[in-house]
Amino acid sequence: MIDAIEEAERAHLVTPNSSGRDAQYMFGHELIRQTLADALSMPRRQRLHGRIALAVETVFASNLTKHASMLAHHFYQAGSGADVRKTTDYLVQASDQARATAGHEEALGYLDNARSLWEGDRSERAADLMDRRAAAFASLGRTRKAIDSGKDAAALWQELRRYERYTASMEAVCLQLNYGMDMGAALVELERAFTVLQAAPVPLRAPLLYEQAFTLAVSGDVAEALKTLAEADAVCAPLADPYVQASGMLSASVVNFDVMRMARASELQRQGQEAATALGRPWEAIAGAFIRVLAEVHGGRLQEAAELIGNFEPRAERIGHRVAQWALRQSRPLLRCLAGDLAGAERETRDILAFVRVHHIAWGYLTELRLGEILLLQGKTEDAVEIVRRVAVLEPPSYRKQHSRGYLFRCLSYVAPDAARAYLRDIEIPLPTEGTVNAYGHWFNLMNLVEGLYVLGDRDAVAKLMPLTEMFAASEIKVMTLGTLPRAAAGVAAACAGAWDAAEAHFREALALCDSIPVVLHKGTTREWCADMLMMRNAGDDHTRAATLYAEAAENYAQIGLVLYASRLAEKRARLAS
Question: Scanning 208, 216, 330, 502, which has the fewest C-beta atoms within 10 Å of its C-beta?
Fold first, then answer.
């Protein structure tokens, strides 16, 4: 043996590995190993793999987990001579280890090999492998395959009467359908699942009850979502199941977010994240992390939002949760915009769009809309309108309430007033309703409509929206991403209605907010609108105060490159000077 090794070393077929006390050798090149292996007959090669696997088990008996990938390879390559169950166990261990280090494609390869050993089998092992493949597909962003594999698993679990596993499979399927923006299909699958589980104990149905509330909220039926959530809480309250409790908190977080109850949503998300993490459920723990980020943004706490993104985004990337990763990344250019870095926000948004296309993120239309917003602010109006118009045609129903329509109206009001008026006549922009539960998108539409109508000079229409703006200004929401501040919108609506005391009070708070938090983007527009209010009122030293505010707004626009607003403001200042 020693003579053979020395001869191979002299021929540079193998090279010594000097690390450690034991003599170890490596092939000089992978092609050498492959050529020698190919020279063996299949039976001999399989027998060698089997002997290597058994030798590894013997030598490393005290720590087999560390060598799972090697054992999985050799036992699988050993062919029919290897024990199927043992081979499958090692393949599953190797897959789990690969997923833990973000090797999701490698993990899927191990699972595909394991599945080939159980082709046509209708056992629990086969169903478990289907579930694992669904999870791997999900981490790779292959949503359709994740759904199909999950459905296959659910069907087999139902056949085997393992209803707790059936529930878990269906929960994962419906979650993927929501990620794919197919909430209607998710609700249909949930109803089918409830039929299957109608005689099952409550703990088996509980996670799906919460999933139903989650899905209704995401679809935009927020009133029914709140009702379903309350029913689920009532049914699940007596249960001491930690996973049911975690599911309840995470679903309730989404429902509260979708009705703009940000503080409650954020706290439920925090509690749910901690519970899911303690249960070893990292996917569920990171899925709604963006809620905590946006709760901070809407509360004007931008530094805290940035810190949360820095904490959560690497975790989402590590486990392959592409939708969660996208949702967290989506907030980075938003923070840049609010800080006044429009050029940086545009670059980052374009990078995120590339990510959306690679991973086929169904909710990625929101990134396109964000790009349109940023381009408009920079005065790149043709590109902005083209993007927003495309999104407005394609946006599917959700809790966002076709808010791209409201934004398209706002865009057109600046660049094509007649087209804006025609568009508003032709389409419906869903708005909040007093006395009812309203969705996230309703309030976005209100802000866009107020600004668009005001830019068009339709003060009577803006005045009619005053009650709704008062409702929103009184809420916990301080910042509405890139549109105007709720307090400023309430101020201009009050001014259009001639309610001067209310208008001045709103603008006083809006200006104080701009000076207390780093929302550079809104400093100029808030001052410009406050000056407009003073010009409309035209009392005492209003003109002098307006001139000062206009000058400060102009400085802000020049500083951060707000071309859209700067040109309009120049006209106002010229009229004031004359």
Answer: 502
This prediction has a pTM of 0.89
Lowest mean pLDDT across 215-224, 485-494, 559-568: 559-568
CA atoms within 13 A on the CB side of 204: 18
C-alpha angle with apex 104: 165 to 47, nearest 5 degrees? 90
Q: Which two tokens stand for residue 262?
A: 């940000």
pLDDT tens string 331-378 = 999 999 999 999 999 999 999 999 999 999 999 999 999 999 999 999
The C-alpha atoms of residue 343 and residue 346 are separated, in whole angstroms, by: 5
Torsions phi, psi for 422 (to 5 deg):
-65, -40
Residue at 227: amino acid letter: K
**What span, in angstroms and rounded, lies between the C-alpha atoms of 525 and 555?**
11
Runs of H (alpha helix) within 220-320: 222-236, 242-258, 262-278, 282-287, 289-298, 302-319
* pLDDT for res 467: 97
DSSP 164-191: HHHHHHHHHHHHHHHHTT-HHHHHHHHH
Alpha-carbon distance 132 to 139, whole Å? 11
φ, ψ of residue 17 to 5 degrees: the values are -110, 110
What is the C-alpha separation between 432 and 434, in angstroms, rounded? Answer: 7
How much helix, strand and coil, in percent to the nearest 5, is found in the chain?
Answer: 80, 0, 20
Long-range contact list for 349-353, CB < 8 A, 24+ apart? 349/374, 352/326
Please state the domain extents for the chain.
1-39, 458-578
Topology of domain 458-578 in CATH is: 1.25.40
Q: Which two tokens stand for residue 54?
A: 């058994």
Which of 527, 181, 212 is closest to 360 using CA atoms?
A: 181
CA proximity to 348, closest of 374, 322, 321:
374
Tokens of 366: 């929101």
